[in-house]
């Protein structure tokens, strides 16, 4: 299993690191969050399992639970698709940044998620959140990914990376947006 821990010194290093990782995952616009999760899972050597769930409101919108064998992302079922994708990207931000997940034990959770100890799920749901710096970092990762997707989708850049025009446009935005 390949686990990565990122130590971002500043926002620019975070942006560049995320873009580099996403280049390695070979993704193009339009953004497909589930494809991103599959490729990241393959890259890390452990599955990422997405679970829509009616999380209590007000409260958290999503959470990431890392176990020995897999990463589980629970996200608010009762919201828009765009919001769900942002929640997933935020939780992916915790994974990419190397934040620790609660190592958490209840009958209902065993039925819903037989692979995760119920206390782990319960403790994760009670969690008030990470330190503000971790939350900001995860949100920055989600923002970098969304900026890339929006920019390339609006520019309608061909996924063919071999054309001179596509290379020039990608190069013009390399240090500013996306992971071109």
List keywords for this structure.
mainly alpha; 51% helix; globular; single chain; 180 residues; disordered C terminus; 3-stranded mixed β-sheet
Describe this structure in words.
This protein is mainly α and 180 residues long. It has one domain (11-173). It contains seven helices and three strands; from the N terminus they run H-H-E-E-E-H-H-H-H-H. The protein has helices at residues 11-24, 33-44, 81-96, 107-112, 118-126, 132-155, 164-173; strands at 48-53, 62-66, 71-76. The chain has a three-stranded mixed beta sheet with strand order 1-3-2, with helices on both faces. Helix 1 (11-24) crosses helix 6 and helix 3 packs across helix 6 (132-155). The longest helix is centred in the C-terminal third of the chain and has 24 residues, at 132-155. It is globular, with a radius of gyration of 17 Å. The chain starts with 10 loop residues before the first helix and ends in a 7-residue tail after the last helix.
